[in-house]
Amino acid sequence: MHEVRLSEPFNEEFVSLQARADRGNGEARYLLKLVERGLCKLIQDPQAGKHIPKRLIPKQYVQEFGVTNLWKLNLDSHWRMIYTLHGTEIKIFAIVLEVLDHKNYDRKFGYRTS
User: Fold this and answer.
1) pTM listed for this prediction
2) CATH code assigned at 72
3) Domain count along the chain
């Protein structure tokens, strides 16, 4: 069985997102639905996303979270879930670091934005 955890910063964002969705914010409800669907995918298969080569891992993730591997799960055509894997063959933990829109994802990873 696999387990999904949220980084502390993302957990705070997730709680805020839930609160906005509960108040009727349509965009927050949509994003919350995408995030929950992504979390379910990671529970089923922690390697459901695309592995990001080590040379492309932003230094911020290494410094802030100490990551040695990084993965990206496309939630839709606009939103990306960034996570790392920890554990052993017996138990794997997917730790969600953040969810970014496509434009901010491109900026963080040094890609040109359209």
Assistant:
1) 0.91
2) 3.30.2310.20
3) 1
